[in-house]
Request: fold
Amino acid sequence: MTDETVKKEEVAKESESSVPKSPVAETPKAAAPARKPHNRDRKPARPRIGEGSSDPELEERVVAVNRVAKVVKGGRRFSFSALMVVGDKKGNVGYGLGKAKEVPEAIRKATQTAKNNMIHVAIDKGTIPHQIVGEFDAGKVMFKPAADGTGIKAAGACRSILELVGIRNVLTKSLRGNNPHNIVKATFMALRSLRSPERIAELRGKDVARIRLK
Reply:
């Protein structure tokens, strides 16, 4: 290398060092999102239907528990169905059917269904206001008012329903069928059709006091 080329290189380096470098704009880093504090006081898990909602005034009766088999490709799968009746002995009663793999779970489901489907029954001095016949499919039951001291002349599912309603004196007769499901539904058909003297007087536009005196 000649002396001239060396001098040219030195001059070029000095010129480069003398030129001020433009500062590069540094992009600010995005701030990390603040973490939410861990809430230790979380609300308890919501209970399932039927848990923790039992009414102390309601009484429960098991009418029937059946084992049901479902035939599938691999064989049979067994489950249970429960028929339950609930009532407060003050004119309110309901029934429900529940199915599950275990008996307690089936009873729980049936009880919750019965509580959701309660009806009010007209009661007149501890008995029913008038004679009535309830019919559902193959089940047919007749109900008659009875004097004080007669008691509940009924059996099976019909007796459980009448006790939970709060009726103390009544005469019943099963005219057809003995399936508990049909008997329960026929009994509820009859109880829904009962009308108190006050309700009948209201529908006819009559005076209730005059009807009571007669």
Notes: The longest helix spans residues 3-18. The radius of gyration is 40 Å. The domain at 59-120 is CATH 3.30.160.20 (Double Stranded RNA Binding Domain). Helices lie at 3-18, 103-116, 156-165, 180-193, 197-204, 208-213.
